[in-house]
Amino acid sequence: MTIYRSAGLSALLLTGLLSAQLCTAGACLAQAAAAAAVAIPATPAGQKARMFIEAINSGDPERLAAFTKEHYPSQANNPQGRLIQERTKGLDVAAVDQSSDHELWLSLKSRASGAALKMRVVVEPTPPNAVRSIGLQF
Question: Are residues 52 and 102 in the same domain?
Answer without folding.
Answer: yes
